[in-house]
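Mods, move this if it's the wrong board.
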Amino acid sequence: MGISGASGTPYAAAVLRALLDAGESVDLVVSRASRLTLLDETGIAFRDAHWQDDLREWLSMGADGKPGTFDVELAGVRYWSAGDLAAGPSSGSYPVKGMLIVPASTACVAGVALGLSKDLLQRAASVTLKEGRPLVVAVRETPLNGQTLRHLVTLDDAGAAVVPASPAFYAGATHIQHLVDFVAGRVLDAAGVPHRLYRRWEGELGGARPA
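Not the wrong board. C-alpha cells:
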C-alpha cells in the first residue's frame, strides 16, 4: 500500500485498518509529500525511526480527528522508506498480491503513468503493472484537467483500477466516518479484499442502492 501527498489521509487509514482486519500482511510506503498532508490533517509528524508509534497513533484516530477511536495491531505491517529504491517492493520477484495507492495525487498518477519511478511508491506501482498484478489507484483531486485524465486512461489501459475518492450518500451515512468507509470499501472491492465497511445493495426497496 502506498500513501501519496493528496488530501485524504482518513481514506488511507480506513483502508489500512480494513486490510489488517482482513488478515492481510501489508508492505507500507509513505511518500515524503504525504507526510506534510498527514501533519496538516492530523497533527502527526510521521518519522521513519518511529514509524510504529506514529502509525499506531494515526490509525487509532477517527475521521473526525478524535484519538483512540480504533484499536490497532501493527503486527502485519512492514514499513519501507519512500527513498529506499533497493527495498523489497522495488523488485518484481518480491511476493505481493497487488498494490493500493490511497490517496493518489495527480503528481503520483502522472509519475506512475509515465513510469518515472522517482521514489519507491512509484517504482512499486510500475513493478505491479509490469508483473500483471492488481493496482488500485484512489485518485483524490478536483477538478481533473485533460492531462491528468489522459494519465488515468493510461493507467486503465495498463490494467489498473481507477477508483475516485467519491463518497456516496445513499447508504444512510450519519457520520463522516461512514463516508470515509464507503470510499475505503470501494477500494477494497476493487482489490478483492473482503470487508464490512458499508451497507450493500440487497435488491429490496429501502435498502442501500448499488454502489
